[in-house]
Specification:
147 residues, alpha+beta, Archease, Possible Chaperone, Chain: A, domain 1, five-stranded antiparallel β-sheet, 8 strands, globular
Length: 147
């Protein structure tokens, strides 16, 4: 597993940030896995501000040579499940073991009337891609998403 026990005072968080015609997603957490989970919440917020019920679970597996590329693979796996399954997700669990990620996404089918989707993400990019431990000990994971 990546990292050791997380410091107890690090609060998970996420944000969206503007980038030309696209949007940036960034997550923070006590571990890389937690930062990936938070960035996934930001990705859902790109699509809808409405509440998404964490109903059905979908499993995803990713592999990449480093954490940054693994992050892009993770976001693209979520985007794939959104597009193919016509679902939105509101809860995420990530386990990172070296260069492999096992994730669970919980969500529900898109209800256009209730969710009022704003856009459909096309893919996570390498632009502004960064996964790193910050000076305060928390991990951040972010990149630009093509919308």
């Amino acid at each position: 597993m990546t990292g050791s026990a997380p410091p107890p005072d690090i609060k998970p968080a996420w944000e969206l940030f503007p980038h030309d015609a696209d949007v940036g997603v960034r997550g923070w957490g006590a571990t890389p896995a937690q930062a990936f989970e938070q960035a996934a919440l930001a990705l859902t917020a790109v699509v809808t501000e409405r509440a998404v019920e964490p109903g059905a679970a979908v499993q995803v597996m990713c592999e990449a040579p480093d954490l940054e590329l693994l992050f892009v693979e993770w976001l693209n796996a979520i985007i794939y499940e959104m597009a193919v399954g016509k679902c939105l997700f509101s809860r995420f669990a990530v386990k990172i073991d070296g260069t492999r990620l096992a994730g669970t996404l919980w969500g529900e089918p898109v209800d256009v009337a209730r969710h009022a989707p704003a856009c459909e993400p096309k893919g996570a990019t390498y632009t502004a891609l960064k996964v790193a431990q910050e000076a305060d000990g928390r991990w951040s994971a972010g990149c630009i998403v093509d919308v």
